[in-house]
Amino acid sequence: MKKHVPLALFVVIVMGLPVLLKNPYYIGALVFVGIYSLITISLSLVLGYAGQISLGHAAFYGIGAYTSGLLTTRWHVSPWFALACSMVITGILAYAIGKPVLKLRGHYLAMATLGLGEIVYIFFNSAVDLTAGPSGFGQIPRLAIGGLVFKDDIRFYYLVWFTVAVLLALVLNIINSRIGRALRSIHGSETAANAMGVNTASYKIQIFVFSAVISAVAGGYYAHFVTFISPTTFDANTSILLVTMVIVGGMSNVWGAVLGAALLGTLPEYLRRFGDYDILVYGAIMMVIMMFAPGGLVSLAGLVKQKFVGNLSREPAA
Amino acid sequence: MHSFSITLQYIFTGIAVGSIYAMVALGFNIIYNCTGIINFAQGEFVMLGGMFMITLTTTWKLPSLVAFPIAVALVVLVGVGFERIAIHPLKSPSVLVLIMITIAGSILIKGVAMFAWGKEPCYLPHFSSETPINFLGATILPQNLWILGCLAAVVIVLAWFFNRTLVGKAMRACAHNRDAARLVGINVKQMVTLSFALSAAIGAVAGIVITPIILMDYQRGAMLALKGFGAAILGGLGSGPGAVVAGLLIGVLESLGAGYISSHYKDAIALVVLLGVLFIRPAGLLGSAEIQRLKKF
Amino acid sequence: MLNVEGLTKEFGGVVAVNDLSFEVREKQIKSIIGPNGAGKTTLFNLLTGLLPPSRGRISFLDTNICGLRPHVIARMGVSRSFQNVEIFDNMSILENVMLGRHCRTSCGAVSIALRRRKAVKEEALIREEALRQIEAVGLDADPHSSPAALPFGKRRLVEFARALATSPRLLLLDEPASGLNMRETEQVAQLIRKIRDSGVTVMLVEHDMSVVMEISDDVLVMDYGTKIAEGKPREVQKNREVIARYLGRSNEYAKNPKP
């Protein structure tokens, strides 16, 4: 049962935060943190567990947002169905992209995913007839369950963080299982993993597609929350920001992914008075973390972790 | 205009832009050969070269001939500083850490550039006359000849440096086998710093000559770097002649593609080439021995 | 159980394994010896599917395994250790060994994510079996600690335990005694015997002749990718060509004392 303590604590915090934070403005910011968390949790499986670098995840985020946005505004598909469609379409695209891309490693993989992200970004900008080009489009309908429309920040807050909690529960089960070990073995040594009977190529694709599909959900949420989308939200800077969130938090730990999203996702709020120069702060944080704590903030809390969580993880499954 | 002349026009433009890609690719190769690092901040060296040149010539009113070497020297200083501060102290970093550090470096440089020069594109006058020269119905800007000349100069200097000088040979030894180089008394760490210096210098030259044509702003470097990397891959990562040929090829392809297919997707063309090569033949069209290197990742 | 016929592997123009044929019988210990560069590790990589052969046939339990992918071959019951010990430092010792059970377990992502009873039960079995193998190889270290800090000899034991956790029919050991001291070498030799006695067929590449001669049922001598002798340890030791090329103190050996 101890295993469930962190998750339970997490749910309590998430439920309680809106009560503490009276300012609706902060709730809005936390919605974005939730949307980012969806991506970073799934991205940490690709990056930290399976050890595959992706600098193009904003593309899947964007494809999800555009598919859901276009289906609902142009063809008046119901938002939930549109969201499901965007998951399927992004999944298929991610499979088609992942098949050749994941054969690459290291720098090659990084550049290839960066290039793919850039191509998708160029497409959003250039396919004006479909995407309305650089100016983007609005009036995307909101999500609703029966009569309950997720129209204000606080309702959307609960929707997003409910999704994050569900994802976390599923992912935490996965990482402490044969599949989680298989993913980490790919990171450790692909050759040895293969020789021990792990179908590394298949696992790499599966986890890549999974994280793309979750990113599409995040994109769909973004579209239906903001009700307006344009290409700049999904450019290479976003891809890099997502990877930075995962790394700053601690890439081989899903809680790190949430922590990273929370820190860097709210950073713009603290840096408001710096205006556009927040880019300098981002760069500096990234540089310092990479140089002095490549394991991320979670690894800095290593001492504490060994005392508490370390013992927890040792308990056999109750 | 005659259709032949139009094609010729596209090719001329392509060669000029391609020369820039070739220089960026050379910069990637020099650092890669010496360290195994792909420097994601390579494009920022290009951007800085143009920006420094603009400040030196327009604000400080220095004559171009004086400003040029100073601008290059300043970028070299940035390159060396970046290596010394962010890369030199690391002990056996992983590929991911190196990628993220060079990306962080590029973000920092971009930020500082935005702070220093603002967000608007900056203008630099052409080196010489802006009157186009007629050639078989197509026109060539004198600046394009300057670009081509600079590429030629860079290639000649690099060839001389790597083949004739002791330091250049030592750097090649590092590229070949770092441990062996250390054993024969080459200071490998110094060579790494030198590779960043050299790479920054080439980037700066590329940035200075291209600025009069494309204007320069703080975030211009990223796309140039991505396309330059495409050239480096197409030519076979680590191969000098490959980088030059592939850079020119990508420039021409892009120019023809923009002219005959769609100017919207101009930037995508180089990226599609990059991906195509990575998927089909990661050793590059011109490289073959580089397959060995791939295994290092 | 393993039949190799005319196996050849070329790298560019270099022939690493040349028209090699041999047989491994059930429950025997077969050693492959030969100087460095004789193609021994390449042979292991061919047998486990890490490299595709250029020509030839490998049949394991009467099935042709040529061209099958490594994870499929592993599932059929061929496991291995690596010359330089390839264990996963990003996992605990226990998790390393638990990974070995991967190909013997089957719960999918959905039942794991939802913690269906089947998945929970399977995970418990995996853990149990892994702990059993850690004990079987005689590894005395906290199974929950990272293997990164272990001395080389113990890292090798982790790798053995992981390989055994796959429930192999055939176990390939690539230089199991290299880098070990005399006491550790003796332990490993005992362990290999114990593994064989438990019904697992063992093939090993080894340079330590005392180990090879002591535990092998059969020895195959390779040089330049070809077989130059095969037989009982005693017979091989007496073989003229082997002595000339490799074992004895011939001129060649004196010039090149580290085979």
- Principal-axes geometry of chain C comes out as globular
What is the architecture of chain B at the second tier of CATH? Orthogonal Bundle
Q: Measure the end-to-end span of chain C.
A: 30 Å
Largest sheet of chain B: 2 strands, antiparallel
Enumerate the strands of the largest sheet of chain C in spatial order, edge to edge or round the barrel. 6-7-8-3-9-10
The CATH top-level class label of chain B: Mainly Alpha
Based on CA inertia axes, which overall geometry of chain B fits? Answer: globular
Spatial extent as radius of gyration of chain C: 19 Å
Query: Largest interface by residue count?
Result: A-B, 41 and 43 residues
Quaternary structure type: heterotrimer
Cα distance spanning the termini of chain B: 50 Å
Binned strand content of chain B: under 5%
Number of helices of chain B: 12
User: Which sequence of strands runs across the widest sheet of chain B?
Assistant: 1-2
Strand content of chain C: 15-25%
Task: Write up this protein.
The complex is a heterotrimer of chains A (318), B (297) and C (259). Chain A contains 16 helices and 2 strands. Chain A is an all-alpha fold and 318 residues long. Chain A has one domain (2-235). Chain A has a two-stranded antiparallel sheet. In chain B, β1 (133-135) and β2 (138-140) form a beta hairpin. Chain B has helices spanning 3-35, 42-59, 64-87, 95-117, 142-164, 166-176, 178-183, 188-214, 221-234, 240-260, 266-280, 290-294, and strands at 133-135, 138-140. A two-stranded antiparallel sheet of chain B has the order 1-2. Chain B has a single domain (3-294), classed as Orthogonal Bundle (ABC transporter involved in vitamin B12 uptake, BtuC). Chain C is of the alpha/beta class and 259 residues long. Chain C has a 6-stranded mixed beta sheet with strand order 6-7-8-3-9-10, sandwiched between helices. The longest helix of chain C has 20 residues, at 117-136. Chain C is globular. Mean pLDDT of chain C is 90; it is low at 249-259. The interface between A and B is large, with 41 and 43 residues.
